[in-house]
Design a protein that fits this description.
Length: about 180
């Protein structure tokens, strides 16, 4: 009996994991690709081992907007919600403002944010992991390449240079 219960529980766990993977793969296939401009981060912690800490220009602009709203006492800013972003002709994302439920224009999209209180605002991944020894190639990164879903959810897919060309480091050479 225990063996059957363990096997059944294992199958349920595998089914849930596979459904999560399927859901993310479907999201990546169907979501549109957009670019978030990277903002400077503390240079001492820019490259830490095999990952890069990320900050986005839109987050800086959103923090300023939240501060303006708080000081004006306009509305209570929820801990999580959606903002309206505008896409330019290159598909780079710019903050338009808080979403009030109005229909969006053709070049506007919703973007989910979470506000951990104070200055911690999240709109996307804060780290980009890469193969050890490839950090130098990513120093030219100026944009995060994201998949943006209709619900405002994002997944970071790559980093790109100033011309929106994905950075693909070469094969790591072995030391003699």
């Amino acid at each position: 009996m225990r063996m059957k219960l363990t096997l059944a529980l294992g199958l349920v766990v595998l089914a849930v994991l596979n459904f999560g993977i399927y859901r993310n793969e479907l999201f990546i296939e169907t979501a549109e690709e957009v670019y978030f401009e990277l903002a400077p981060v503390d240079p001492r912690s820019l490259m830490q081992g095999d990952y890069m800490r990320l900050n986005y220009r839109i987050v800086e602009n959103l923090r300023k907007e939240f501060e303006r709203i708080r000081s004006a006492g306009e509305i209570e800013i929820p801990a999580a919600g959606k903002i309206v972003v505008r896409l330019d002709e290159r598909r780079v994302v710019f903050l338009k403002g808080m979403w009030n439920g109005d229909p969006l224009a053709e070049n506007e999209r919703l973007l989910h944010y979470s506000n951990g209180g104070g200055w911690r605002v999240h709109v996307g991944s804060e780290s980009f992991f890469f193969e050890e020894g490839q950090g130098k190639a990513y120093q030219e990164a100026r944009y995060g390449v994201f998949k943006l879903g209709k619900d405002g959810r994002t997944i970071l897919r790559a980093l790109a240079d100033e011309n929106l060309v994905r950075i693909r480091p070469g094969v790591k050479e072995k030391a003699p």
